[in-house]
Design goal:
The chain is α+β, with helices and mostly antiparallel strands. The chain has four domains: 157 residues, Immunoglobulins (Immunoglobulin-like); 106 residues, Immunoglobulin-like; 179 residues, no CATH class; 107 residues, Glutaredoxin, CATH 3.40.30.10. 38% of the residues lie in helices and 24% in strands. α3 packs antiparallel against α7. The chain is elongated and about 105 Å long. 43% of the residues are buried.
Length: 701
């Protein structure tokens, strides 16, 4: 059924809230309006929520914010002290009110508006806040009567915000609001009609009873016109006549409420989605509302993105993800201790060329796949089980080489220069490329904003952002390689270099082991077993190759043949891997639960605060943050104190919902941490976390 993934978010539109004692009331013969605050007291710098619950006499109705062909919505004019802010009202899902030949939108019986109220930090704690509300509304039956009421509201303040006595007013009101849509939406317009397309595989034509789109603004559609529904395997479409009142087609996003009624076993089930449709192709649209109004590229331009990418690349050298290849860099410095300035500079340039070449190849592949419609992000290559297995083998081979099992032949190093220089430069290029590969799962400060911005840029500009990141990653090594001071600090060569080389094999083995573990997440325990058996044959091939390098002609042929057969077996073991195409919900131990857009939409619709953690098993920065900030009593206590639901999203394998959420925040990869308050926009947190940061953010929900 359509609600298989949205059943928790399918909040029925109820008749209205059960009212508790109000703080103020306005009343006429037809309408009674009660005001309620969600908190008994509010601390300076904090906020609460204000409810206006209206009850109409039988047969009478009021209007939604877009009243339709006639009518007028409720309007509130506020008088408030300086610094006190009253935000935009949230409106319940409207009902259709046909009045031939017109169609209006509004409410019968009851309706409740919710508004955030913020108290400035400068407000003296203990002094009450006095608000005056001048409320206007139009109430109709056979005739329409404009009415008005004035109310004075007193909001107590104190040293801390305290929850009001439990009432159903706010819970019932939130149950009448539309759920933020977890689906991407787009629209197309022609001379006569507007077509709204919603992308989702949960819609079934045989189970849908009714679909109606309520536009948030007047003048977009003909409200009384028929809305023609079309459902297929990829989603649904509504074709609606355009408004006869204006010739101007919509130019920006079209917002509104999509109300869907589906046949269910015990009667009809209704869900109302808060929809934001962008003009264009639905394939490139993003799910609305879950990221609030966060700008996808942070409002930065191309040149700012270049600068942030370069700075992020420099900082990337300090991130945990590149620690394994810092060993190879250190060995490269040690090998240059007796080198000339020219040799050192060439070594640094070769390393830089390796970083840039690999990033350039990744950028071309990344941009090409995204242009073809693939839902991928930063670190996408490590979501492929074959790439992970191949990289694990490569790092294992590097470790075996550092341990002295085999040597890279001078014929492989190249000709035309001394063996030491030629092999060193080739090795530096390889080290640079490997550094780029291992660094791609991580997102450094400043880098996330730059890479997110590149998602919305033309291909050439996006490619330039990737290259700026590569130059930033390579810059420290390049500068050290041409620095006379760095050359003077290098120790003299000796036996210690062989010992260092052998010791540095162990970070390679550790990283290879981590990648095999990641492979288990991507493709299961059988894939891990296949990779480990393959690693045994990789070791055999490396040993045989090393033996061939020190054997005579006959022994070399036998050893070379053994190495070739062993390598073929290792490759065959990789071919046995059966990777998953999409990640499943991550099993969560502790205070959290698996992330889904439907679950996030449900929690937001209920006004509950949420903390989301988008992670991946191959993201070492994510793992460090989990150990440092997310697995301790203080973190769990802060979640409990704030009533915060913790949602954990696993991006180890491809997951289109997580990719869309990342893009909505203007980010290209993980980690991503965000806190959703009860009301208002989500707060993005830094990529490097501490428990104090989290406790502070949780205190603001």
């Amino acid at each position: 059924m359509m609600f298989a993934r949205l059943i928790a978010a399918a909040l029925a539109v109820v008749a209205g809230p059960a009212l508790a004692a109000p703080v103020a009331t306005i009343e006429t013969e037809i309408v009674r309006g009660d005001f309620h605050f969600e908190h008994d007291t509010v601390a300076p710098g904090d906020k609460t929520v204000l409810a206006l619950a209206m009850k109409m006499a039988p047969g009478w109705h009021t209007y939604w914010k877009n009243a339709g062909d006639s009518g007028q919505p409720v309007e509130i004019r506020w008088e408030a002290p300086e610094g006190v802010e009253i935000g935009e009202a949230r409106w319940p899902v409207p009902h259709r009110q046909p009045f031939a030949p017109m169609m209006n939108y509004g409410y019968e019986d009851t309706s409740t508006l919710l508004m955030p109220v913020s108290v400035p930090k400068s407000w003296p704690a203990g002094d009450p806040v006095t608000l005056t509300a001048d409320v206007f509304w139009l109430v109709c039956k056979e005739v329409c009567i404009p009415e008005q009421g004035v109310a004075e509201l007193t909001l107590p303040t104190g040293p801390a915000t305290s929850k009001a006595a439990e009432t159903q007013v706010f819970a019932d009101a939130r149950a009448t609001f539309p759920v933020p849509s977890p689906y991407a939406a787009a629209y197309a317009v022609d001379d006569t009609s507007l077509t709204v397309r919603v992308k989702g595989d949960a819609f079934s034509e045989g189970e849908i009873e009714d679909v109606y789109f309520f536009p948030a603004e007047w003048g977009i559609i003909d409200h009384a016109g028929a809305q023609a529904l079309s459902v297929d395997g990829d989603g649904l479409s509504l074709t609606i006549p355009r408004s006869p009142e204006t010739d101007e087609p919509p130019s920006g996003a079209v917002e509104g409420v999509l109300k869907i009624v589906e046949r269910a076993g015990n009667g009809d089930a209704t869900i109302a989605l808060k929809l934001v449709a962008q003009q264009g192709d639905v394939a490139s649209a993003l799910p609305p509302a879950l990221v609030g109004s966060t700008d996808r590229n942070g409002g930065i331009g191309f040149w700012v993105a270049l600068g942030l990418a370069f700075l992020g690349g420099v900082i990337l050298n300090l991130m945990p993800c590149v620690f394994p290849v810092l060993a190879l860099k250190a060995l490269g410095f040690a090998q240059m201790s007796d080198s000339t300035f020219r040799h050192r500079a060439a070594h640094g340039l070769a390393y830089t060329a390796g970083v840039v070449a690999l990033f350039g190849a990744l950028a071309a592949l990344f941009i090409g796949l995204r242009s073809a419609g693939a839902a991928i992000g930063w670190g996408f290559q490590l979501q492929n089980a074959y790439v992970v297995a191949g990289l694990a083998y490569l790092l294992f081979l590097i470790g075996l080489n550092l341990s002295g099992v085999f040597e890279v032949s001078s014929r492989l190093a190249g000709v035309g220069s001394s063996k030491a220089e030629q092999g060193g430069h080739r090795g530096a290029f390889f080290t640079g490329a490997l550094t780029a590969i291992v660094a791609t799962p991580c997102t450094a400060p400043f880098m996330g904003t730059a890479m997110g911005a590149s998602l919305t840029m033309p291909p050439l500009q996006a490619f330039a952002v990737f290259l700026a990141l590569a130059l930033g990653l390579a810059a420290p090594f390049l500068l050290l390689s041409i620095s006379p001071a760095a050359a003077r600090l290098m120790p003299r060569p000796g036996v210690w270099m062989d010992r260092l080389k052998q010791f540095l094999a162990f970070p390679m083995y550790a990283t290879a082991a981590l990648l095999v573990w990641v492979l288990g997440t991507l493709a299961g325990p059988d894939a891990m077993l296949a990779a480990m058996i393959g690693a045994v044959f990789i070791g055999l091939a490396a040993w045989a190759w090393g033996t061939a390098q020190s054997s005579g002609e006959r022994g070399r042929r036998l050893a070379t043949g053994t190495a070739a057969v062993a390598a073929a077996v290792a490759i065959a073991m990789v071919a046995l891997i059966n990777p998953a195409t999409e990640s499943t919900a991550k099993t969560v131990t502790g205070p959290g639960e698996p992330f889904s857009t439907a679950r996030l939409a449900e929690l937001r619709a209920e006004g509950k605060p949420v903390f989301i953690n988008m992670t991946a098993d191959w993201c070492i920065t994510c793992k460090v943050n989990e150990r440092v900030a997310l697995r301790n009593d203080a973190f769990e206590q802060a979640l409990e104190d704030g009533g915060i639901t913790y949602l954990l999203g696993d991006w180890t394998a491809r997951n289109s919902e997580i990719t869309s959420l990342l893009e909505g925040f203007g980010r290209a990869g993980v980690p991503l941490y965000a806190v959703y308050p009860r009301e208002g926009e989500p707060m993005l947190l830094p990529q490097i976390l501490t428990t104090d940061m989290l406790v502070d953010a949780f205190g603001k929900v």
